[in-house]
Amino acid sequence: MATRNRVGIVGMGHVGAHVANSLMLQGIVDELVLSEPKEAKLAAEVQDLGDALSFCPHDVDIRAVGCAYEELAACDIVVNATGDVALARESRDGELQFTPAQARDFVPRVEDAGFEGIWLTISNPCDVVATLIQRLAHGPAQRVLGTGTALDSARVRHTLARQVGLAQQSIQAYMLGEHGFSQFVAWSGVSFGGIPLEVLKAEQPERFGFDRAALEETAVHAGYVTIAGKFCTEYAVANAAAQIVRAILADERRIVACSTLLTGQFGEEGIYASLPCVVGAHGVEEVMRPDLPPAEVERFHASCAHIRENIAQLDWFPPAR
Question: Is 179 a catalytic residue?
Answer without folding.
Answer: yes
